[in-house]
């Protein structure tokens, strides 16, 4: 699919926009002041493919903690700032690779000038983050309530504040918990600017509901070529956010990472405990980063054919099954050995 052209920026050593692959990011859910807990969560995120991590900086103690965190992790860190420009300055001094803030609520022009003066020489990008739940009063008065047009106007106003100071290392996000509103806002904005866009659905909800909303919102935009970096928002462990993000990218053919499991939903023909088998295999292959398609089917008759494009797979029947590659049967296997045989074959393939 054709990607929307966007100007490039870099956060640490991670390029965003300018034709770079869509970047996956997440946000820590630990108190940033708790250095050990935050470092552990960042490492957990890195292990599943997170490429950028955002941390909340609500006070100077959190800003100071950034320096200790930064020295222990390799992922670029984005400091999430609200209201107090001094927190942005402190975050920069403590090694933040990027900032997320709203220029309109960080103070006046003088305060914003100080942030730009500190960020520009260090090539630290600023994400202008507009949220439907926190639009300024003038915008709300004009539109009556949050709309896609209101989100875009707010973002452009904030971007102009930075541009007027000669700063253009900018990313933009337009977050809403309303998927249709979020999609409409990004579509409008993508026609007005060439800055890279951070795409996501905010306050999306719990694991299942949130995954659906993120997949619809982020997936719709990415399928139209809109979006340079994504964050899946879930009320769940942030590791799940990264995993869902990669599944969205995989489904659209934009990026491939790790094992993709193709498994049948089961029906009355299934004569093996496929649910337990899928869970065992998924857990055993969870650490693999090489792209590989693995099929786990519950029907010996149709399984290999239905998953003929898989790199490797198994299809089970009553008491036995088959190991197959690219839809061709390799050998018969007792049911009790199916999972073990498949796991061993995958490890042989990637070694």
User: How many β-strand runs?
Assistant: 15
Rounded radius of gyration (Å): 23 Å
Assembly category: single chain
pLDDT average, as an integer? 92
Head-to-tail CA distance between termini: 32 Å
**What is the percentage of strand-forming residues?**
15-25%
Query: How helical, in percent, are the residues?
Result: 25-40%
Summing up helix and strand content along with how strands pair, one would put the structural category as alpha/beta
Q: What does the largest sheet look like?
A: 8 strands, parallel, barrel
Strand order of the largest sheet: 3-4-5-6-7-8-9-10
Number of helical runs? 12
General shape: elongated
Q: Could you name the ranges where pLDDT drops below 50 across 5 or more consecutive residues?
A: none
Order of helices and strands: EEEHEHEHEHEHHEHEHEHEHEHEEEH
Summary tags:
alpha/beta, eight-stranded parallel beta barrel, five-stranded mixed beta sheet, 12 helices, about 40% helix
């Amino acid at each position: 699919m054709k990607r929307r052209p966007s100007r490039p920026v870099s956060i640490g050593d991670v390029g965003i926009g300018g034709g770079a692959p869509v970047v996956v990011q997440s946000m820590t859910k630990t108190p940033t002041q708790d250095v050990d807990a935050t470092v552990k969560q960042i490492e957990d995120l890195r292990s599943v493919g997170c490429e950028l991590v955002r941390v909340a900086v609500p006070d100077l103690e959190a800003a100071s903690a950034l320096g200790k965190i930064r020295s222990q992790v390799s992922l670029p860190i984005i400091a999430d700032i609200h209201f107090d420009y001094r927190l942005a300055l402190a975050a920069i001094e403590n090694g933040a690779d990027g900032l997320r803030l709203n220029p309109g609520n960080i103070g006046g022009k003088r305060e914003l000038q100080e942030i730009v003066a500190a960020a520009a020489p260090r090539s630290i990008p600023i994400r202008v983050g507009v949220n439907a739940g926190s639009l300024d009063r003038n915008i709300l008065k004009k539109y009556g309530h949050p709309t896609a047009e209101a989100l875009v106007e707010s973002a452009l106003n904030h971007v102009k504040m930075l541009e007027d100071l000669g700063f253009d290392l900018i990313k933009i996000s337009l977050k809403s918990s309303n998927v249709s509103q979020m999609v409409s806002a990004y579509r409008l904005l993508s026609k007005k600017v060439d800055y890279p866009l951070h795409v996501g659905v905010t306050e999306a909800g719990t694991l299942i509901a949130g995954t659906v909303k993120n997949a619809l919102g982020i997936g719709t935009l990415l399928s139209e070529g809109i979006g340079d970096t994504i964050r899946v928002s879930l009320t769940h462990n942030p590791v799940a956010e990264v995993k869902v993000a990669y599944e969205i990218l995989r489904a659209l053919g934009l990026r491939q990472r790790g094992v993709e499991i193709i498994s049948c939903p089961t029906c009355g023909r299934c004569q093996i405990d496929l649910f337990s088998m899928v869970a065992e295999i998924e857990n055993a292959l969870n650490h693999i980063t090489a792209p590989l398609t693995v099929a786990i089917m519950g029907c010996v008759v149709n399984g290999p054919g239905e998953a003929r494009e898989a790199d490797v797979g198994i299809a089970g029947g009553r008491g036995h099954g088959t190991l197959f590659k690219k839809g061709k049967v390799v050998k018969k296997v007792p049911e009790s050995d199916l999972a073990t045989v498949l796991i061993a074959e995958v490890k042989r393939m990637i070694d």
